[in-house]
C-alpha cells in the first residue's frame, strides 16, 4: 500500500519543516483499540504509512482486552482481537517503513474488561464493585488488587505482547487505579499510605521486565505532586506524564474541579498552567521522561481541535525546553470511540511538526493542505475525504471490542 509517492513525501516534509535534527528522539502516536473500535489490518497499514510519511518513530496500539492472549479466550473471544500473526504482519510492515510497533497495555487500573468475567473477578481490588462515590467514574471493578499473584499475571501478559511486537520497549499503563485502598488493600494503605502501596505494586511489574532487558514506559499521573515518588522510579523505567487540556486561566476547565477531586486524581495545584505544572517534578529530576498530549477527539463526534492544538504546542514547547526524550500523541476511545479517525488528522499532522521542531506550530504551516496531500484529495477537501474511514471498501469493517458493529 502506498500513501503518496516518495517525491511527494519529501516535498511535504520540506513544507512542514521536518528536516534537520528532531527535537524529540521518540515521536509516538498511540491509538486506543480497546474502547471500542478495533481497526482492520488495512486501516492500520494505512495509518503506518501516514505516520511514516510524517516521520513519526513509532505506533502504539493501546490494548486492554483486544489482543489474543493465550489462555484468555474468555476475555477477548467476542472482542475482535488483533492476533499474534496480525501483530507480526504489522511489525514487518512498519519496519520496512522505518516505524516501530510498540507494545502498549494496561496492567493495574482499567482492567474492567477482564474483571467483568467471574473467573477473573477475585483479582479485583473491589470484587463487589467500587465504593458508591466512585461509581460515576468506574461503575464496576476496574483495578487489580496489589498482590504478588496479580503482578505475575501482569508481567506474563506484558511479556506475551512485547514478544509479539519483537521490540525492546513497552508501555505497561498503571494509570488511574481509582479503587486502590478501598478494598483488599485497605489495611495496607492505612498502614503505609496509598502512594507507597501503589509504588510497591508498580515495582513488582516494572522490575522483572527491566531485568528482561526492556525499557518500560508507564503513565505518570500518580507522580505529579510528590518528589519522593519521582526519585523512586527505577533505572530502565520511563515515566510518561500525560495531560490533555490546553493551558488555561486559573479556575477554568479542569482546574475548576473541586479540590478533593483534584487531589484524588493527583492534579497539581497549579495544573491550569499545563505541562509546566504537570511535568515539573519529573522534568526537574534526572529520570527519563516523555510527555503525552492528546487529539482531544474522544468523548465527541468531531473533536476539540482548538484545545488539541494548544495542548500539543504546550507539550512540545515544555518538553523540548526541559529535555523530555519523547513526545506522544494519544487518541483515546473513552465511552465508545465514536469519533472517526478523520477527526484526529489535524492533530496527527500538528504533533508531527511540533514534535520535530520542539516548539508551537507556526500559523504559516498549512495543516489542512498537508491533509489534502496525504489523502491525495482535491485542495481544501482532505479532512472530508472518505478514504480515511475505510481505505477501500466496507469489507474492511471489523466488529468492535464491545461486540457492536462499527465502521473502521
Question: Would you kindly provide a written description of the structure presented here, covering whatever features stand out?
Answer:
By secondary structure, the chain is an alpha/beta fold. It has 15 helices and ten strands. It has an eight-stranded parallel beta barrel with strand order 1-2-3-4-5-6-7-8, surrounded by six helices. Helix 1 packs antiparallel against helix 15, helix 6 (148-165) crosses helix 8 (194-211) and helix 7 packs across helix 8. The protein starts with 5 loop residues before the first helix and ends with a strand.
Per DSSP, the total helix count is 15
Q: Residue share in helices?
A: 25-40%
Instruction: Give, in order, the helices and strands.
Output: HEHEHHEHHEHHEHEHHHEHEHHEE
Structural class: alpha/beta
The biggest sheet amounts to: 8 strands, parallel, barrel
Describe the strand arrangement of the main beta sheet, using strand numbers. 1-2-3-4-5-6-7-8
Instruction: Report the radius of gyration as a whole number of Å.
Output: 20 Å
Shape: globular
Portion of residues in beta strands equals 5-15%
pLDDT averaged over residues: 91
Residue stretches low in confidence (pLDDT < 50, at least 5 long) are: 385-397, 404-408
Distance between the termini: 17 Å
Number of strands: 10
Task: List key phrases describing it.
15 helices, alpha/beta, disordered C terminus, 408 residues, 8-stranded parallel barrel, two-stranded antiparallel ribbon
